[in-house]
Amino acid sequence: MVRSNNKELSTSKLFIIAGLFLLATGMIWGITGGLQYILPGFLKRQLSFEKVRPLHVSSVVFWIILSAVGGVSTYIQQHTGKKLYSNKLIKAQFIIFIISIFIILCSYILGKFGGREYWEFHPILALPIIIAWILFLINVVKSIGTLKNQPVYIWMWLTGVIFFLFTFLESYLWLFPYFRNNVVNDMTIQWKSYGSMVGSWNMLIYGSSIFLMDKISNTKTYSHSRIAFLLYFTGLFNLMFNWGHHIYTLPTHGFVKHISYAVSMTELFILGRIIYLWKDSLTTAKKNFHQTSYRFLMAADIWIFLTLVLAIAMSIPAINVYTHGTHITVAHTMGATIGINSFLLLAIAFDILKDTCRNFEPYKKRFNTGYWIVNGSLLLFWISLICAGVIKAKWQLSNSQIPFSSMMLTLKPYFIVFFISGVIMMIGFFLIIYPLVINQLLCYSKRNSTEQIDASYHTTVTLQNK
Fold first, then answer.
1. Per-chain mean pLDDT for the chain
2. Mean pLDDT (whole number) for 374-397
3. Residue with the larger pLDDT of the pair 446 and 99
């Protein structure tokens, strides 16, 4: 496991830095949307909710994708002890992604749509993303080389890269009349592709997290263990089949729902393992709590537990009838996106970006404050959504329903808590990501200034000698 030069501003690092900027902008859009829940009509003319929602969702999704790409690209080099197969490919991929994301976000602001769910932009903008991902696939496969005796994270990275491309293409089958003209099949494929797509980028993130855990412990024991590969195949199985709980309410084939329910329950194995190893994880945490990256890994472990409990409950058909289409689903998504994915990606970002030409120590107090603010506010944020979801679930299945507007008024106190905790959480995140970004920018500008001075000095000496 070779350590790369952290003082070099590589393209892999640029992916993570760009991801951090998208995380920041995504939170701002999220807070704007939360305020529109409390104050209907806020910024309606300039930035209505139908614009703010995709701006928030796409920013956060691209934060996850770009940072995952940066983590995988960096750790592959540390694993092999060699540079990537092609530096030109990763640079081209980065440029394509940045230009595409910029155009996508601008199109939302201008009110130009044409897609669905995660990808509400015009389908033509999906083409550069597909091209950029194919470049990434080539780079990963060529950089890894042989699959013989490879640790579990290599298999996870390959699985994530291949399945993301497959599911992303699958999410655009609605463009063909054969799929679009049948509502049930159309919705089934859409939810299937989105569910599996999340599993795909999870593979990239979890693989990088396992690499990081091995790096912290300075061993390769876990990544080659049987339990690691068993968990990998459980995750792969879930990636392919457990999306079915999203479509319990659709009149589709019964066997699809039964298989999905059975697969969803395999997550009990993961939950049981977390509980079984709880004492051991506490002992390890005491040893490594001083390490910034490890603290995020530990926080993510807690949120994996909480999110799994909620996910398993939502996968039970009798409960899913109540939770479907409520804020409980949003709570599950937020818990997974922030508490798991974002915390794991921040652990990876701190490992890759922390050791720069500037000392991180002056920021330690600010980081500690941000860390505890984020974790506390996220729990309050999560609980407020669940409470709002329970009330809406009762309303949905009530025989004597009050008007929707009246029901939404009863949720207003929870939306206020949701908004306030969201603002506090955003402040906490800014305290965390600020030193990562500013250190890189200052280091890069300092390096450029030094190089210019050196070049000027060498030019002067050469002229004097002549």
1. 85
2. 92
3. 99
Do the beta carbons of residue 314 and residue 329 sit within 8 Å? yes
My answer on whether 155 and 111 are in the same domain is no
φ and ψ at residue 174, rounded to 5 degrees: -65, -15
Domain stops at, among 145, 168, 188: 145
Q: Domains in the chain: how many in total?
A: 2
User: Do 198 and 80 share a structural domain?
Assistant: no
Reduce the secondary structure of the chain to three states and give it as a string.
Answer: CCCCCCCCCCHHHHHHHHHHHHHHHHHHHHHHHHHHHHCCCCCCCCCCHHHHHHHHHHHHHHHHHHHHHHHHHHHHHHHHCCCCCCHHHHHHHHHHHHHHHHHHHHHHHCCCCCCECCECCCHHHHHHHHHHHHHHHHHHHHHHCCCCCCCHHHHHHHHHHHHHHHHHHHCCHHHCHHHHCCHHHHHHHHHHHHHHHHHHHHHHHHHHHHHHHHHHHCCCCHHHCHHHHHHHHHHHHHHHHHHHHHHCCCCCCHHHHHHHHHHHCCHHHHHHHHHHCHHHHHHHHHHHCCCHHHHHHHHHHHHHHHHHHHHHHHCCHHHHHHHCCCHHHHHHHHHHHHHHHHHHHHHHHHHHHCCCCCCCHHHHHHHHHHHHHHHHHHHHHHHHHHHHHHHHHHHHCCCCCCCHHHHHHHCHHHHHHHHHHHHHHHHHHHHHHHHHHHHHHHHHHHHHHHHHHHHHHHHHHHHHHC
pTM across the whole model: 0.88
Residue 56: the pLDDT is 94
Confidence bin at 466 (pLDDT 50/70/90): very low
Tokens for 3? 């350590």
Q: What is the spatial distance between Cα 69 and Cα 75, in angstroms, rounded to a whole number?
A: 10
Residue 438 has pLDDT above 50, yes or no: yes
User: Does 460 have pLDDT greater than 50?
Assistant: no
pLDDT at 245: 67
Sign of the dihedral through C-alpha 182, 188, 191, 195: negative
Which of 233, 264, 295 finishes a domain?
264
Range of the domain at 219: 148-264
Is residue 408, in this structure, part of any structural domain at all? Answer: no
Residue 451 has pLDDT above 50, yes or no: no
Mean pLDDT of 398-418: 85
Of the candidates 83, 95, 68, 29, the one whose C-alpha atom is nearest the C-alpha of residue 347 is 68
Asked if pLDDT for residue 98 goes beyond 70, the answer is yes
Q: Are residues 6 and 141 in the same domain?
A: yes
Residue 401 within any structural domain of the chain: no
Q: Is 138 exposed, middle or buried (0-12, 13-18, 19+ CB in 10 A)?
A: middle
